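Fig. S4 source data, part A: sequence.
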Amino acid sequence: MKESQKKKDIDSLLQQVGKNIDKLSDEEKKSVSKFFESLNVFSYAPIINVHVYFDRKITDELFCSVLNPNVQYVFNRSQIIGKKGNGQWLTCSLSGAFQQSAFARKDIASMTINGLRQAFPKAKQAKVIRWRVVKEQEATFRPKPGVNSQRPRAETPSPNLFLAGAWTNTE
């Protein structure tokens, strides 16, 4: 048995619960209390992260935003992790990526790389070594009017189980 699979005694647990109660099996739903059923009313927004590896350095910025819906937020991952060498790893984070999430990964990568080439002149001559697109369809809690009354509190019916997350009622 792996260490992570061993039973452990704990005094309390702070759990960031996913909101996918509606995706549980019927048997699992029966075991879930009414307390968690309010999570079904929440909606979420997608985030896409596009990781691009260039053969050379194209920017000195640690983090910046770009007025282009296919680039948005640029993180200099090479600098963040202290990577030395000639190449550069950038991650572009696209928030509220409803339209982009419908596209194929290769198309998202192409649009993002083109946006980086427009935003950073040194990128025009740089070669893309590789890229990776990560889609998180339900990444960000998106509150709607009236949803506040449905947000569960951190305390649960179980005396030692506590919830965390942007969707919880923290008042």
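Fig. S4 source data, part B ends here. Strands lie at 13-15, 43-54, 63-65, 73-76, 88-95, 128-142, 161-163.
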